[in-house]
Amino acid sequence: MRSQNEFSYGGDASVKRPELNQEVSDKEWDNFVYNRKSLRGKHLELWHHVSGCRQWFKVQRDTTTHEIFKTAKMNEEI
Amino acid sequence: MQKYSVFSLIKNAFSDHMNWEVAWKDPTPKKEYDVIIIGGGGHGLATAYYLAKEHKITNVAIIEKGWIGGGNVGRNTTIIRSNFMYDANGRFNEFGMELWRNLSQELNFNVMFSPRGIINLAHSDAQMNAYARRGNSMRLNGIDAVLLGREEVKKYIPMADFSDDVRFPIFGGLMQPSAGTARHDAVAWGYARQADSMGVDIIQHCEVEGFNITNGKITGVRTSKGEIKAKKVGLCVAGSTNILAEKLNMTLPIETHCLQACVSEPVKPLLDGVVTFGAGHFYISQSDKGEMVMGGDLDGYNSYAQRGNLPTIQHVLTGGLALFPFLSRLKMLRTWGGIMDMSMDGSPIIDKTHIDGLYLNCGWCYGGFKSTPVSGWTFAHTIAQDRPHELNSELSLNRFSTGHLLDEKGIGTKTWIG
Ligand SMILES: Cc1cc2nc3c(=O)[nH]c(=O)nc-3n(C[C@H](O)[C@H](O)[C@H](O)COP(=O)(O)OP(=O)(O)OC[C@H]3O[C@@H](n4cnc5c(N)ncnc54)[C@H](O)[C@@H]3O)c2cc1C
Fold first, then answer.
1. pLDDT above 90 (res B162)
2. I want to staple B112 with a disulfide (CB 3.0 to 4.6 A). Which of B19, B163, B183, B406 is the partner?
3. pLDDT exceeds 90 at position B391
4. What residues flank ligand 1, with Cβ below 6 Å?
5. Whole-number pLDDT of residue B418
6. What is the rounded distance in angstroms from the CA atom of residue B271 to the CA atom of residue B350?
7. Do B354 and B243 have their domain in common?
8. Where are the domains of chain A?
């Protein structure tokens, strides 16, 4: 068990940056930068072990109970 | 409606206060309304009041899933201010200050508006320069702002730690003397009572579960008490905005986060106005009862839990102790949290939507209590006239895609950083 204080939050992990070398519509860019579902219940998110091993990783957490279901490395799918 | 006054108080004392009229009724929903407001927080209640008063639209229902005032309007630390840099935010909130000044008289309900000033502390020359700039911008919009030096700050808060060997020595601060606090519950109750007296139905313990939309036009809402038709629907659900947006197939520039606050045991008058210690993630005021009312940053991750976790409270109070060492001798009475509709630029949204007859009021972050009157006033106008008022024309939903952000803090979209 690690203290919560060691970790910092990086936001919604399901957001995908539009492809670099393709035409991007304003709507797509808007969705990527600003619009968020902010789900109640299971939420896939990024965390940073900032005061520890400094790895970024993915967490699936309940946004009402804070129960953590799964964690994964950045290159793994949940 | 019974008028509240010293005479009605004396009269009712003779009957042991058993004969007061109910402040608002408990009606069963009608089949149809001209306007339905979802959410009986400060903003929903104020909107209904101004719809009736300013626009003579009285066939209105407020639909509240819990009880009125049980959301953020009853959980906030009641700071009221208009110390903004951008014109749109400054003008909007300064108009709000005008409404606050007369609110107790207007509602015939003592909202205990107490303009004792706010000081934002500065801890470097760079921060003093930034505050000078903000103060000048405020004054250009007719908002009072005073740049205080270290010695002047000391006059207001002599009990703060003014030593030089602290992490954030006090260089000075920016003061808005006309800012202050009010009694949050009274604001909700005052608006509710007046709205009810003008014919608005306040329907509590009724949750909106879905929307009826035909050919791109809203026709009503589906609730836990059945379907209710409406020509127009306004959303004022603060921290539940994302949940209702999902039911509308809308994705908004909003994230839901938890903000906590806490109060100490009451003590004699000690602190006059509000003091914010941004560098220490801490702010404080003293309530009329004498409690120290304190808060700081968000818990820092998406949350729908209306209570927070201990590390944030410890963090807030660590900052508090650094500024005001006397706090170490006070006992804490309680802590609580509320869920906030954090917009991606820190400013609110009051606008129409792509659905005909559906209007949006959200994105209040941790500062929506101060805007309760002006939010209701402008939202009522937006709904009644089907177009924004000049005051909220820049608080638009499409400012994110067009790039016309109102990012007062200049921190971009990571609203949880605080
Ligand atoms: C700890 C804390 C401190 C704060 N401090 C300050 C401060 O010092 N100054 C300041 O200006 N602001 C402050 N705020 C922010 C302020 O409280 C909010 O921005 C503001 O109250 C939001 O507007 P409201 O009053 O309408 O929200 P609420 O009171 O939350 O109203 C929304 C209502 O909608 C209802 N609802 C939700 N979903 C549904 C549904 N599906 N059907 C029916 N009803 C529904 C909810 O039950 C709720 O009653 C603070 C907030 C918190 C939590």
1. yes
2. B183
3. yes
4. B 38-44, 63-66, 70-73, 75-79, 207-208, 236-240, 244, 259-261, 295, 338, 364, 366-370
5. 46
6. 35
7. yes
8. 4-73
CATH number at residue B259: 3.30.9.10
Cα dist. B342→B184, B187, B209, B345, B388 in Å? 20, 22, 22, 8, 21
Atom of ligand 1 nearest to the CA of B336: 1
pLDDT digits (tens, 9 = 90+) for B47-59: 999 999 999 999 9
- Which of B84, B237, B343 is the best mutation target for the ligand 1 pocket, counting ligand atoms within 8 Å of the beta carbon and taking the most? B237
- If asked whether residues B356 and B237 sit together in one domain, one would say yes
Q: Say how far apart CA B347 and CA A38 lie, in whole Å.
A: 18
Nearest to B364 by CA among B203, B255, B244, B247: B255
Task: Give the residue, by CA position, lying nearest to ligand 1 atom 31.
Answer: B41
For chain B, the residues whose C-beta falls within 8 A of a C-beta of chain A are: 242-243, 246, 251-256, 300-305, 309, 311, 344, 400-401, 413-414, 416
CB A43 within 8 A of CB A9: no
Tell me what percent of the residues of chain B surpass a pLDDT of 90: 96
Tell me what the mean pLDDT of segment B91-107 comes to: 98
SS3 content of chain B, % helix, strand, coil (to 5): 35, 25, 40
Q: Is the ipTM of this complex over 0.90?
A: yes
Could you tell me which residues are beta bridge partners of residue B229? B32, B220
This prediction's pTM: 0.97
Which chain A residues have a beta carbon less than 8 Å from that of B413? 33-34
Comparing CB atoms, the residue among B242, B256, B401 nearest residue A30 is: B401
CATH of residue B11 = 3.50.50.60
Q: Domain range holding B209?
A: 6-73+183-252+347-402
> Hey, is the C-beta of A16 within 8 angstroms of any chain B C-beta?
no
Say how many CB pairs under 8 Å bridge A and B. Answer: 70
Kindly state whether residue B215 falls inside one of the protein's structural domains. Answer: yes
pLDDT of residue A47: 96
B244 assigned to some structural domain: yes
Q: What is the mean pLDDT of chain B?
A: 96
Q: How far is CA B52 from CA B34, B191, B318, in A?
A: 11, 11, 47
Across residues B141-165, what is the average pLDDT? 97
